[in-house]
Amino acid sequence: MANALFKPQFLLVCGLSAALVSCSGEGQGSSGPTRFVSIQPIQVCDDLGMFCADLATFEAATRKIWAQANLDVSFLAPNRLNASRFLTIDNQDEFAELSFAGGAGAFGRNPLSTRTSGPISMWFVESIFPYEGFDTLGLGWIDQNGVLIDDDILTFNNGVGRLDTVAHEIGHNLGLTHEGFGAGGANNLMTDGGFRNSPSTLDDITPDGARLDQLTNRQIDEARSSGFARTSPSPAADSTPRELPTTLPPLAEATPDALPWVAPPKVTPVTDLALLPEAAFVAAQAPQPIPNGPAMTLLTAGLLAGYLRWQPRRR
């Protein structure tokens, strides 16, 4: 077997599969200190708060997957967003509005979240891009804050659920893509969902069993260097955002579950978004009294009575 390692056929296969992370690209885990990533789940409901998308964090699988990078992923207490129009995300602009528009804490976001640091905002909705002709189970900005999860991940694989979608989308926010840093192999976490082997149980996740959802050393280094990976367990730590252009990303050339940040030719400042109200936030105003209202009413009644008495009767 040792001699087989030097055969040209083996070297050729290994070389071709290096980009697919199936020969020697598997990460061996990080030797650095533990870093911390917080997730702010946001359950989207209708305007009345009666019908809500299901929360499907798959926390145990997510934590196990990112443990290979020595990243401690924790989920904060869920927030709830009562806004029927966001139960179905029809386009990228709606996702951008949820992620970037408004002030701190808008749309259920954690007040400590910024575009490049703090808890990662994760909205659970009923449907993502339903008219695109494919099932979009998750959507995440690359290297910026914001994740969408379709609650259909609960019915995936005959009800087992897509255990690694949440971890995959977190990876996008941490700066990882479908092809970069050694992704592309069927057992790599960041490979597109249509080509990735998904675990059926926790025992399938690396370093156990089928060793699925692997991360390469390059992916681990990139994720650990993200502004979302803190040196302290406190979500308030390391919350200084990096400078980024305040423009919406373009709609063109977006992959199904990862939206790259590329400045469009004509930029639209986030502050200029025309927000549709989630509820009637305008303070109710007291009715304005009509000047001399009662006196005018009596005068009008008197004039009307006199006019009617003056009218000649028809025979």
Topology:
Elements: H1 8-17, E1 35-45, H2 59-67, E2 71-75, E3 79-82, E4 88-89, H3 92-100, E5 120-125, E6 127-128, E7 138-141, E8 147-150, H4 165-173, H5 217-224, E9 258-259, H6 293-310
Parallel strand pairs: 1-2, 1-3, 1-5, 4-6, 5-8, 7-9
Antiparallel strand pairs: 7-8
Descriptive report:
- This protein has 315 residues and is of the alpha/beta class.
- It has helices spanning 8-17, 59-67, 92-100, 165-173, 217-224, 293-310, and strands at residues 35-45, 71-75, 79-82, 88-89, 120-125, 127-128, 138-141, 147-150, 258-259.
- The strands form two sheets. Strands 1, 2, 3, 5, 7, 8 and 9 form a seven-stranded mixed beta sheet that branches. A two-stranded parallel sheet has the order 4-6.
- The chain is globular, with a radius of gyration of 28 Å.
